[in-house]
Specification:
Organism: Sphingobacterium faecale
Bound molecules: zinc ion
Number of strands: 12
Protein name: N-formylglutamate amidohydrolase
Order of helices and strands: HHEEEEEHEHHEEEEHHHHHEHHEHH
Strand content: 5-15%
Helix content: 25-40%
Structural class: alpha/beta
Number of domains: 2
Largest sheet: 8 strands, mixed
Radius of gyration: 20 Å
């Protein structure tokens, strides 16, 4: 019964939302009768274009450029990899951007998903694009989509396909977890933050434990849709921003917990990552991006600039639970966080990923257990 409702809900939601918001594609769903839905729901986790898919199956979007790994029906984790695509498309999708790949976020994210499944028995949902982000960037804001991709182009169809499948995954999750504390969408990215004057600073190597000098900044940016300057405000002020963040739904579910504690308290994702040795912003060690002319430079007026920090793009804003702002999310219990990872210590090579993926997996499971009332086992860091 629950699943039959889910299918009807998915169909109607997509029909209503996609044409109005940002997708011109024809949804791959038909509105099913409850009887037919009940019959089909015996066949898998989700239906797409008339076929049913089990957890672990791949749903292919437009020309196989977009892929959705189907999660278990009750898994509370959805992972996004929008920026590690390498293909130009056939025919070639024109270059419409110049920002580079988030290299190795795909193997990093799949490693996290595999470790999560090994501990919990549940396959997370994973959405990804195989197309070079300079040709199709799923993080493009709807207001820019027509200008950037046109209406019926290869780029536009790929963009629409990504959002169709992400919406499908998120909708099934939200429906199946409606009577629980919910789950989380984590959009995985990579940055290349450097110190302002190409100077090097030491960080502790995840491999050797020794100090290594680098021009790159070893930190993971956790994006909640709030500006770095907002994170820099006092807790009492920051607490009033909950409804503008991509975890507004999680904040509402914990009315006795201050919002600032969700961002930088001992059980914030940043603090849980720091406990694993992953430097995070915001967290309990770096509560907000600080200003420092020597390390981060100055602006044209000579004022010190702040620590580089990415606060979240369209994907995490749209598919999270922000209630207020230019881009709002959904009124449910599937919140979103964007994670921007460094190359050093997180994703530069397979040896690093084999280690960092355990650290991220451990923090994510702890986060779900603490804030979402799960009781998943969480294997120890093996190195
Ligand atoms: Zn990115």
């Amino acid at each position: 019964m629950k699943k039959s409702l889910q299918v009807v809900f998915v169909g109607s939601l997509l029909c209503l939302m996609i044409p109005i918001t940002f997708c011109t594609c024809t949804p791959g769903y038909a509105l099913l009768s409850e009887e037919k839905a009940a019959r089909l729901s015996q066949s898998g986790v989700v239906e797409y274009n008339g076929a049913w898919y089990q957890a672990g199956d791949t749903i292919y979007g437009y020309k196989n450029y977009v892929k959705l790994i189907v999660g278990d029906a009750n898994v509370p984790l959805l992972l996004g990899i929008p920026h590690d695509g390498m293909f130009e498309g056939n025919p070639v999708i024109p270059l419409t951007g110049n920002t580079g790949r988030d290299i190795n976020t795909k193997p990093l994210t799949f490693a996290i998903a595999d470790l999560f499944k090994a501990d919990t028995g549940l396959q997370p949902w994973v959405i990804l694009s195989e197309i070079d982000r300079r040709r199709m960037d799923a993080n493009t804001y709807p207001k820019d989509v027509d200008t950037r991709y046109g209406i019926a182009s290869e780029g536009r169809k790929t963009y629409d396909s990504y959002h169709e499948l992400l919406l499908l995954a998120r909708t099934v999750m939200a429906t199946n977890l409606a009577n629980t504390m919910g789950g989380i969408f984590i959009d995985m990215h990579g940055h290349a933050h450097r110190y302002a004057h190409e100077q090097e600073e030491a960080y502790t190597s995840i491999i050797s434990g020794k100090q290594i000098l680098s021009r790159y900044i070893d930190q993971s940016d956790l994006g909640y849709g709030l500006l770095g300057t907002e994170l820099g405000e006092e807790n009492a002020q920051l607490d009033s921003y909950a409804d503008r963040s991509t975890i507004a739904g999680l904040a509402s579910a914990h009315p006795t917990v201050s919002f600032s504690a969700l961002l930088r308290g001992p059980y914030s994702l940043g603090a849980l990552l720091e406990a694993e040795g992953v430097t995070s912003v915001p967290g309990s060690v770096i509560p907000a991006p600080e200003f420092d002319a020597d390390r981060f430079g100055t602006n044209a007026a000579g004022t010190p600039k702040s620590r580089p920090y990415f606060n979240g793009g369209f994907l995490s804003r749209r598919y999270g639970t922000a209630k207020i702002g230019t881009t709002t999310g959904f009124a449910d219990n599937i919140s979103a966080i964007q994670i921007e990872t460094p190359g050093i210590n997180v994703r530069n090579n397979t040896t690093i990923i084999a280690r960092s993926s355990h650290k991220f997996k451990r923090a994510i499971i702890q986060y779900l257990n603490h804030w979402y009332n799960y009781n998943f086992p969480n294997s120890v860091y093996p190195y």
